[in-house]
Fold these 4 entries.
Entry 1:
Amino acid sequence: MDNPRWVQRPEGANWGDFSPDDQLGRLNLITPEKVRQGVAEVREGVTFSLSLPLDYPGGNLLNPRRYPPVLRPTMRETMPNFNAAIGDQVTDVVCDDLVILHLQYSTQWDALCHVGSRFDADGDGVAEKVYYNGFRADEDIRGPSSLAECGMGDGTSRESTSGATRLGIEGMAAHGVQGRAVMVDLRVHYGDARTFVGYDELMRVMEADGVEVETGDMVCLHTGFGQRVLEMRKTPDAEALHSLCAVLNGRDGRLLNWISDSGLAVLIADNYAVEGLPAQEGHETPCAQMPLHEHCLFKNGIHLGELWHLTPLAEWLRARGRYRFLLTAPPLRLPGAVGSPANPIATV
């Protein structure tokens, strides 16, 4: 398969299947027909917000590198532009603010450039840092090589120091994320105990609930984790954060094959990372620390949604014997970003 960026693609990957330069991956499967199917699921006109507040879970215990958003006023000359009376002869009082935002702190989308791999795409025996469809680190996804170059400093810099010229989240935003979604309710079967869900466990749940996934569907996994985080009221317990609710077993090859074969367009969960981290042991090394991320983002162009709030919708659907709904879930159209907050809306 001719491609200017790679000679060989990873085993189980779909690189080049949509086009040599494709940056959307399985979003290509959300076609106008899938949008119409989603709209056809709207019967009541009831909507659900599927996002946590952006300042949840609170603190940085879930991920030590991610912090809650910080709000600050913009400046008007030498004064804060907040509750600002803008002149003696006018009555306007103005508030204007900015935010320092970790893009993957709360309810989020992973862009396809969020996780890549060291892989021998050139076929010369040397592994390169590459991402979905062979796009390259330092060429297509660029960032500083040292902390001093990150631009943290005193906070006065107005220049970006990292960015993806390929595979950034803006491609997802421009394409649009709207269509038919499917709810798989793991919580009702496994409760809130930490449970690694592989292929067999997932199939048992789907068979018991009569859930079918068709090509282009967006799959949502309800584990209850988002609800538990919300109940912690921004003072989470570290042990609970890392020991609650169902997670997918990224080491289960049959599960990964099902993700590929099912034709799902995106994979969403209300837990921290969709898959269990740390992943289960017993795999030959070197290997991916996040095998499901590797399979979805790096190999197959499947965007991941994480830390959503699915419990009210899942309970509403179950009470009515339904599992399909219209999902509208665009990320921020922020060029170059490797992830984005989301405020998904389900309509039933």
Entry 2:
Amino acid sequence: MTTKKILSIIGLALLGIVLLIAVFTSWYTVDESEQAVIITFGVANETVTESGLHFKLPWPIQKAEVLSKETYSLQFGYNQNDQGEITSYDAETKMITGDENIVLADLIVQWKITDPKKYLFNSESPREILHDATSASIRSIIGSSLIDDALTSGKAEIESETRDLLASLIDKYDIGISILAVKLQDVELPNEEVRAAFTNVTDARETMNTKINEAKKYENQKRNEALGEKAAINSRAEGQKVARVEQARGDVAVFDKLYAEYRTNPEVTQQRLIIETLETVLPNAKLYIMNDEGGTMKYLPLESMQSVVPPAAETEEGGGN
């Protein structure tokens, strides 16, 4: 075999290899959860977000960097593998609070790629930058917080402040990602003895709050009962007031009627009033009222009072019969 033929075979083989490379590197696919950046001779030209099959110039002229559009999670202070095993990094999570106490704080940062070009070309390692910015942010916020807030009721505020600070840092770095959420996983004291002491303090505080709430409940109950009793007394007093006013008006009306009758016939009215008064004072008495002619008028008889009647009155009564 001559040298010319050998060179021809080598040339055909190289051409075949180039053609195969051109065929297999001139297309790429993008899923619905992905996005791609087309790079031409090392320069990012366009971002492709539509899913499906796409074509480009073959390698090494163009290449496609496919990135996910889904949300990523950064585990700060620990690592959990696919089997669920957790590895803690205490040296990374140990930090000092504003009142000079040591705590261990680990968290999760949720983030996503919003600008693929900046993510690929504005930094060599955007994930490492995010990790360092997360460490700086949580240490800054914990360093200005009290230990009670970090361990109990202030966690939500710490999460919010950490997210805001981390988002501002990432915007300054301009690495093409955005922060969605920051979630504290665990904040605890560095050793068991201190944790036990703080747990006792926390339990005492919760017991105090429970007692305070029970006292307020009792106070509200007694106040409501007192207000109800007050309302009932006021209601009864108002009813008695109305009854007495009406009774007084009735008495005035009766007096006015009697006074009108008295002005019409004073003597008869006077005798009537005397009789009614005696009837009221002596309800069981047997009364005899004498007139000038010697006649009698029996009024409200009472057998027990016959012994006090004068004999002359009995004789005249018998003579009358």
Entry 3:
Amino acid sequence: MTDALTDLLKTRDWLLTDGATGTTLFNMGLESGDSPEFWNDTRVDDIRALYRGPVEAGSDLFLTNTFGGNAARLKLHGAQARARELSRKGAEIGREVADAAGRPVIVAGSMGPTGEIMAPMGPLTHDLAVEIFHEQAEGLKEGGADVLWVETISAPEELRAAGEAARLAGMPWCVTMSFDTAGRTMMGTTSAEMTRIVGKLAHKPVAYGANCGVGASDLIRTVLGFGETDRPLIAKGNAGIPKFHDGHIHYNGTPELMAEYAVMARNAGATIIGGCCGTTPDHLRKMRAALDETPKGPAPTLDHVAERLGGFSSGSDGTDGNAPTRDRTGSRRRARG
């Protein structure tokens, strides 16, 4: 089965993805606690602008405004019955923007976690998780998404359920986990373990990797930790480290820092490179220029990563067999945007 993302990857050594969704929408007036997915219906022009930002900055792929568009998350807003509809509308707007770009641009249907704990530790069974993800996947497919983009996942069980949903929908998919807890996901998965999990899936993703987490340096270390793989790797790191200031979260990563991160991510082995929380079109423009203008080099050492992008949030990411320890630069968080 061929798909638009695989076809584009055959023609390019690397692709640039988009940046933050939440950061942009909050700047447009989204209130904390509101569902961004409602804007796919009520503020269509703003969602068009959200998508056009990365496209005009040079991104080859952007994610739809559907991160929290599954029934489990929308239930918090009394809108669980609208999961398929709001995902379809988010993808339809994306399809319109991509088709008007004048060059190949991939519409990636964002699918975030359910927010529930998977069995046996929690109440969410595999079958129910598959059903929740499948409903959203069908909406994204109907709206014209080229690929499903499962992101910010912590539990291997949820990753497997999303992959099964993608198979049922007959859709190619990508998946990223968030390694935000001393180099591991919140549920304890390391990057090396993710590679093993992906290798055993019946319906394998087109690409996999990491998003969000703590900062750019940790993201590069995670990419290096994936090890040998036959899949393209994804790197979607935050724009620096989040700091709480004047009642808001701010990211200290400049466009120049993110440009250096992008080149370093490619050298570390990533093929699909972008930003997550705090990453604006200004960051993306610098990242695109750096990737265009800088020849690929050798994989960076951890010392070089720390020197150029800042220190790591823990002494180990777990891939060396050691239990991770945290240092004073770390912060525990899990979010998107």
Entry 4:
Amino acid sequence: MGLNLTGIHHLTAVSANIRDNYRFYTNVMGMRLVKRSVNQDDVRAYHLFYSGDKRGTPGNDLTFFDWDVPREQRGTHSINRTYLRVRGHDALSWWADWLSENRIPHAGIQEIDNRAVIFFEDLEGQRLALVDDGGQGDTHLPWDRSPVPAPYQIRGLGPIMMSVKKLLRTDWMLTNVLNMRPVRQYHHPEEGVVHVYEMGPGGPHAELHVVEQANLPGVQPGAGGVHHVAFRTPNEEEYHEWSQFIKSSGIRNSGEVDRYWFRSLYFREPNGILFEIATDGPGFAVDEDPNTLGEKVVLPPSLEQRRAEILTNLKPID
């Protein structure tokens, strides 16, 4: 098959405390809120998009649905850690001090899979890691209003780690359907043996790390957990090809969905984790001035006529 995904597009998680979530990811993590919108399938809930760069370039976006739900009960069949990339050991050293200064518990700098990492969690237990990406990935566009100095700012997402009960079925989808390449294994001190799958050019921004954990119970989704991960496809032509290929492979899917800022296709891998394929464009500046991204609630045209009703149901976060 000639189609290739090019990396992680975005990851969407769940928060039950969206005001503190907003403060944590902007004030502590130094990310920019590049789109302040609502869940297009549940307009009572915010959908906030935080970016490691100033424009919300694909591959940078960590997004959250605002749902009043209990805390996630951890288990398998889940995405269990999101890595955020920085460049160099000096950046990780700065982050170790910064997290401590902000009273965020962390395990210090460790060496795992031949990469330096820091493991920690956000205020709701969202499992995160900072990783030295060695400068791989797209060129970083610093945000000049971040509290984090430009050389140390988050450069994007990846890798993404997920847990399944049965690797064999997931491996089939990753390799035979999504055209990922199994490239190595390593031992993770908390999770066990990790199987690494690579997309497109490879590198941490284009890796999915999978652990087989047959003895764990299944996850009970909730706040502090991940809803889905999205993978990049560069344009609408290849997106349509992916849509046809997923359908012809007999995989149940959402059909093509226009999210206005990108096009989406949703489906589940055999252990039940929700995947998305998303286009790189049109991008977040299609309906906002790049200098004021995220400063007001923006709705796709399909919801604009309901603006007054939608805004009434949203709580303030600033």
